[in-house]
């Protein structure tokens, strides 16, 4: 696997460290962070692992594409499902990129957390992550000094979670990832632009909506729950 992505690293040092980092992630460690992974790799400090993640030059988007292609080779199925969902990593500080008090399913409540949106490929052969996008809240975008201190490029603006999901789905579908339909929870089902994009591409979807979500049917607008009550039980 590392041989497939080796060309994405300009130097041998970050390539070797990336291999050690992945082995650390796969290891049976009680906690996984730069300290414990560095110790597992035999390093005297976490400096090298931290450098890999924050300052080393390597094409992480190209690695993503390589991993996606590898997974499609092994899990690919025309009837597969693309799943979008976000998850949060609980944090104690305020300097981690995108961290703030926000709802995260990890805790099931509002907590100080960093949230990212993920795209999962699922087929009868298995499932795996094929893409990711970090969610940067509006509060961060409105604070230039905070953005600069965290190393966020100036051109980064606020993007909603459904828009992040749409960008990842577009990348996957443009890369001819075989899939029959898309699924996601209410966060994504409530966004008409995401649904419109999938319809335009001829991709099926099952996306949750709120019970009071307005739906056009038969020339009129109905609440989702009211429309559901009109569906025959046999359907």
Short summary:
The protein is of the alpha/beta class. Helices cover 41% and strands 23% of the residues.
Provide key terms for this protein.
235 residues; alpha/beta; 6-stranded mixed sheet; two-stranded antiparallel sheet; 11 helices; 23% strand; globular
Description:
By secondary structure, this protein is an alpha/beta fold. The protein has helices at 2-5, 12-26, 34-41, 47-54, 60-75, 138-141, 144-150, 161-174, 186-189, 192-201, 224-229; strands at residues 81-90, 100-104, 109-123, 126-134, 181-184, 204-207, 214-217, 220-223. Strands 1, 2, 3, 4, 5 and 6 form a six-stranded mixed sheet that branches. Helix 2 crosses helix 3. The radius of gyration is 21 Å and the shape is globular. The model has no long low-confidence stretch (mean pLDDT 94).
Helix content: 40-55%
Which class do the helix and strand fractions yield? alpha/beta
The shape is globular
The proportion of strand residues reads 15-25%
What's the SSE pattern?
Answer: HHHHHEEEEHHHEHHEEEH
Instruction: Return residue spans where pLDDT drops below 50 for at least 5 consecutive residues.
Output: none
Radius of gyration: 21 Å
Major sheet size, sense and barrel closure: 6 strands, mixed
Q: Taking all residues together, what is the mean pLDDT?
A: 94
- Count every helix, treating DSSP H or I runs of 4 or more residues as helices: 11
**E-strand count:** 8
Distance between the termini: 46 Å
């Amino acid at each position: 696997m590392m041989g497939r992505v080796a060309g994405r690293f300009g130097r041998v040092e970050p390539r070797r460290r990336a291999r050690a980092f992945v082995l650390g992630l796969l290891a049976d460690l009680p906690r996984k962070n730069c300290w414990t992974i560095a110790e597992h790799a035999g390093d005297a400090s976490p400096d090298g692992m931290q450098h890999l993640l924050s300052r080393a030059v390597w094409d992480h988007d190209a690695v993503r594409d390589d991993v996606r292609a590898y997974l499609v080779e092994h899990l690919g199925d025309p009837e597969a499902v693309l799943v979008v969902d976000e998850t949060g990593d609980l944090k104690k500080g305020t300097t981690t990129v995108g961290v703030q008090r926000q709802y995260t399913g990890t805790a099931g409540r509002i907590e100080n957390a960093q949230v990212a949106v993920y795209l999962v490929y699922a087929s009868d052969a298995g499932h795996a992550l094929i893409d990711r996008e970090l969610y940067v809240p509006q509060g961060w975008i409105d604070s230039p000094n905070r953005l600069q201190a965290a190393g966020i490029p100036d051109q980064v603006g606020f993007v909603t979670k459904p828009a992040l999901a749409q960008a990842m789905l577009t990348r996957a579908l443009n890369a001819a990832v075989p899939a029959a339909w898309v699924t996601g929870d209410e966060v994504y089902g409530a966004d008409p632009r995401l649904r419109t994009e999938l319809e335009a591409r001829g991709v099926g979807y099952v996306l949750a909506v709120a019970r009071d979500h307005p739906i056009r049917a038969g020339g009129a607008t109905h609440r989702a729950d009211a429309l559901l009550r009109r569906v025959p039980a046999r359907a």
